[in-house]
Design a protein that fits this description.
This protein is α/β, with parallel strands linked by helices. It has two domains: 19-36 and 64-230 and 434-451, ATPase, nucleotide binding domain (Nucleotidyltransferase, domain 5, 2-Layer Sandwich); 244-427, Exopolyphosphatase. Domain 2 (Nucleotidyltransferase, domain 5, 2-Layer Sandwich), CATH 3.30.420. The protein is built from 17 helices and 13 strands. It has a six-stranded mixed β-sheet with strand order 10-9-8-11-13-12, with helices on both faces. Strands 5-4-3-6-7 form a five-stranded mixed β-sheet, sandwiched between helices. Strands 1-2 form a two-stranded antiparallel sheet. A hairpin with a 5-residue loop joins strand 1 (19-20) and strand 2. Helix 5 crosses helix 7 (211-222), helix 10 packs across helix 16 (404-417) and helix 11 packs across helix 13. The protein starts with 18 loop residues before the first strand and ends in a 13-residue tail after the last helix.
Length: 455
C-alpha cells in the first residue's frame, strides 16, 4: 500500500553513524566524514558533473583547484595527497542509527592539508518516522537559514499497529509489512552520503509488548537501528516541523498531530517576545493514547453512523477533560491572533476534499487556512458518505476510508475544547521537525556556513 508522499515535492520547509547491509558488510560512510561523489549537487541544485566547460579557462580552473580544501575525517590524518588514509577507509561501519553526541563543528569543517572545503557539496540529512500507520522517510540538504530542500522521500501505509488495541502486540503480518518498507528506506539511505540522520519509532512500538523485539528484527533484517521516542519528544518534534506556518503576528496556537495510535497536542504562547524556535514557546502539552487506528478499531471505521461518531467525540473529549494544562492559553483564545494548527492525514484529507482536488496536491494543501464553517461542512460531508464513497474520493482512497472519520472525531473534540475561527493545515510534521533540529544542531545555517566557519 503506497501512501501519497507529502515531502517528495516539498518546498523549502522550515543521527547518523553509518549503515550496515543486512549481510553485515559496510554500506555507507559513518557520520561526520565527508566523501565527494560524482554528480554531487551544489547549492543551486545543479549537478557539478553536468556543469558546462568553458574554453580558455584552464588557468583559472587550475588556480581554483589549488585553492580547494580537503576535509580530514575525524581523528584521521590526510596523506600527502590530502586524502584520508586507506586504513580509515577500510574501518567497519555500525548500523544506521541516531546521533547521541553533539557534532564537533570546527573539527568537522576544518580544511585539511589540500585546502579543499568540505562544503563543496551540501551535507545530506535524513529523518525516518515509523508510526502506527505509516513509514515515512525524508532526505534533505540545507537551504536558506531555517529552510531545507528535499532530495528524496518515501512513504508507505504499513498499519504497524493493526490489531494492537485488542492484542497488545504487533502482529506478524504488520511487522512483515513494516520491515519491507524499512528495507526500501535503508536502500535509499545507503545510496547517499548521509551526514546525520535520526530514525524514530512512535506509539505502536512504545505500547506493544513486543515492540523492542520488533526493532531488533529491523536492525537484523534492514540494518536500521530505530529509537523509540517518548510522547513529549514527539510533541516537540511536531512543533519544530511547523514553525514556518505560524505567522509573526500570532499570539497563541494549539498545534495537534493526530497519529495512528496517539495524538499529541501542544499549547503555544507567542504573546511575549518570540524566539526563532517555536518549540521554546510550548507552555503545556499532552499526548492522548488514541489515534485514528486505535479509535476506529474500538468503534468501527467502515460504517460510521452519527451516533457512533458522537460516541467517538465524547470518548476523546473525556480524555481531554483530565488534561490539567488545557487552560494555559485561554486568555489568548478570544482574539483574532489565535488559531488551531493541525498536522496529520486527517486535516490534509479534509483540506483536499474541501478544495475538490481530483488528485492530492501538497502544494495546495500545506499552509491552507480553513474557517470554522468550512471544517463543519467537510466533517458533515464525510459523515454523510458511505464507505465506498469515501474509497472513491481521490484524497481518501481505500487506505484511509476506514480511518478518516475517527480522525474527524478527534479533531472535533479538539475544536470543542479550544474553539477557534481558523484552522491552518500543515502537510509536514515529525520528519521536518527532525531535519530542522539536526541541521540547527549541526550549525549549517550559521553565517557563511557554505564557506566554513570564520577563523
Amino acid at each position: 500500500m503506497e501512501d501519497r508522499e507529502p515531502g517528495a515535492k516539498a518546498p523549502d520547509a522550515g543521527a547518523y553513524r553509518g549503515i550496515r547491509s543486512p549481510d553485515g558488510g559496510a554500506a555507507n560512510p559513518p557520520a561526520n566524514r565527508e566523501n565527494r561523489a560524482p554528480g554531487s549537487r551544489s547549492g543551486n541544485g545543479h549537478s557539478r558533473a553536468d556543469a558546462p566547460q568553458q574554453p580558455g579557462k584552464g588557468k583559472k580552473r587550475r588556480k581554483r583547484k589549488r585553492g580547494r580544501k580537503v576535509f580530514a575525517r575525524d581523528g584521521v590524518k590526510p596523506d600527502s595527497a590530502g586524502k584520508p588514509s586507506s586504513a580509515a577507509q577500510a574501518a567497519p561501519n555500525a548500523p544506521l542509527q541516531n546521533s547521541v553526541a553533539a557534532p564537533a563543528h570546527n573539527a568537522d569543517r576544518r580544511p585539511d592539508a589540500a585546502g579543499r572545503n568540505a562544503f563543496g557539496e551540501l551535507p545530506v540529512f535524513a529523518a525516518l518516522d515509523l508510526g502506527t500507520n505509516n513509514c515515512r522517510l525524508l532526505v534533505a540538504v540545507p537551504g536558506r537559514p531555517g529552510q531545507f530542500r528535499v532530495v528524496d522521500a518515501f512513504s508507505r501505509i504499513v498499519r504497524l499497529g493493526e490489531g494492537l488495541t485488542a492484542s497488545g502486540r504487533l502482529s506478524d503480518a504488520a511487522m512483515d509489512r513494516a520491515v519491507e518498507a524499512l528495507k526500501i528506506c535503508a536502500d535509499k539511505l545507503r545510496s547517499r552520503k548521509v551526514r546525520r540522520a535520526r530514525l524514530i519509532a512512535t506509539e505502536a512500538c512504545r505500547s506493544a509488548a513486543n515492540g523492542v523485539e520488533f526493532l531488533e528484527r529491523v536492525e537484523t533484517e534492514a540494518g536500521l537501528k530505530l529509537e523509540i521516542i517518548d510522547r513529549q519528544t514527539e510533541a516537540r518534534l511536531a512543533v519544530s516541523g511547523c514553525g514556518s506556518l505560524v505567522e509573526r503576528d500570532t499570539d497563541g496556537v494549539v498545534l495537534f498531530d493526530i497519529g495512528g495510535g496517539s495524538s499529541e497536542i501542544a499549547l503555544i504562547d507567542l504573546s511575549k517576545q518570540r524566539s526563532p524556535r517555536l518549540a521554546n514557546h510550548i507552555v503545556s502539552w499532552t499526548s492522548l493514547p488514541v489515534g485514528v487506528v486505535s479509535l476506529a478499531e474500538r468503534f468501527g471505521g467502515r460504517h460510521v453512523t452519527p451516533e457512533i461518531f458522537d460516541a467517538m467525540v465524547a470518548d476523546v473529549t473525556a480524555m481531554l477533560s483530565v488534561f490539567e494544562g488545557r487552560d494555559r492559553i485561554n486568555h489568548l483564545m478570544e482574539g483574532s491572533r489565535f488559531h488551531l494548527l493541525g498536522t496529520s492525514g486527517t486535516v490534509t484529507t479534509l483540506a483536499g476534499v474541501h478544495l475538490g482536488l481530483e488528485r492530492y496536491d501538497r502544494r495546495r494543501v500545506d499552509g491552507l487556512w480553513m474557517d470554522n464553517a468550512s471544517v463543519d461542512r467537510m466533517i458533515e460531508k464525510l459523515l454523510g458518505w458511505d464507505f465506498q464513497a469515501r474509497v472513491a474520493n481521490a484524497c481518501i482512497g481505500a487506505d484511509r476510508a476506514d480511518l478518516v472519520l475517527a480522525g474527524c472525531a478527534i479533531l472535533e473534540a479538539i475544536r470543542r475544547v479550544w474553539p477557534s475561527e481558523r484552522l491552518r493545515v500543515a502537510d509536514r510534521g515529525l520528519r521536518e521537525g527532525i531535519l530542522s533540529e539536526l541541521m540547527a544542531e549541526d550549525g549549517v545555517w550559521r553565517r557563511n556556513w557554505r564557506n566554513g566557519p570564520r577563523q
